[in-house]
Specification:
The chain contains three helices and no strands. With 73 residues, it is mostly helical. Pfam families: DUF8029. Keywords: Membrane, Transmembrane, Transmembrane helix.
């Protein structure tokens, strides 16, 4: 699903072909694309780090419990 702002701006940029015909225009498109990838990556990685941290804590607690109370698990 495309964000409404992008859906409104993208056709205008595509119709302004002269801007993207130059090497600087193409470079700008590439840099903006990389920026979007980095921004999305930061959000995904922040969620992934939380999940990894929670999983490590749970496994550590289970390991400690199994060492001190062997018949429990």
């Amino acid at each position: 699903m495309i964000h409404p702002v992008i859906a409104n701006v993208l056709p205008v940029l595509l119709q302004a072909g002269g801007l993207l015909d130059t090497s600087l225009g193409q470079l700008l498109v590439v840099i903006v694309g990389i920026g979007v990838v980095v921004l999305v990556g930061r959000v995904v990685l922040s969620i992934a780090w939380r999940l990894v941290t929670i999983a490590a804590l749970v496994v550590g607690v289970l390991l400690l419990v199994s060492m001190f109370v062997p018949g429990l698990l």
